[in-house]
# Entry
Amino acid sequence: MKRAILLSALFVLILGACSGNSNGEGTSNGESALPGPSITTDNTPDAEEAAEAYLNAWQENDLAAMYAMLSTLSQDAFSFEEFEARYEHVSREANLFNIEYEILQSLTNPNSAQVAYRLILHSAIIGPITRETMMNLSLEGKEWRVGWDDTLILPELEGGNTLSMERFDPARGNIYDNEGSALAVNTSAVAIGVIPEQILEEEANLLISSLSNLTGVPVSTLNKEIFPEDRQAPFYVGVGEVPADVFAPREIVFQAFLEYPIVITIHVFILMAAPRRNLLVM
# Structure
């Protein structure tokens, strides 16, 4: 009987020792319990937003802001002057007056990213140029930086290729009547257009009056087309066409407007026209 009582007492002591740790406030030797694991997250910035910021700066022709977004490696490889010259050459050669883009897709890794996008470069010479290309980005600190090469402008510029616009004149003969008088002859002509958003307020009157004197289009008509009051100004306004020999002596008047950023566009082409015809309004 005494043995049974002793075993019961021992069982109670064991249970009591185990229950001393059940409330999680301590251990049997008086030490505090270890805290649970903590989890922290470091959100990676959005690579598409970085690509959009770069392309938006291109739309605004803010080349300095674009260069500031390049990776350290790219800035070491290209000076700002070289970078600026690449963009300005393409803009002048193609007579660009507007740039549009669309982000297609992106792939993001911990320290690198790729953003695919579609470009539409609007040329006053050949119309829209649509291409799809890829932007590579690398994470520096907490910012995505652009790994630059020429394919960000056009994929065909890879490897140092350059853009060149060449004119091919159609081979058409002159047209004469029964008496041998010329009805239509090949002649060089100049198509003139204007990019309204590039016109400085202090230069507007001079430009409009100069275009009017050259083309014969009234100042009031040009003002309505280039600076409409009832709607948003268009990206590009075709002013008219004049024979090349009429434009040549007056080209110096427009020289300042032909330099970057481009205000007016000039496109020389071969036109079949009647003799003594001085203006073809577009």
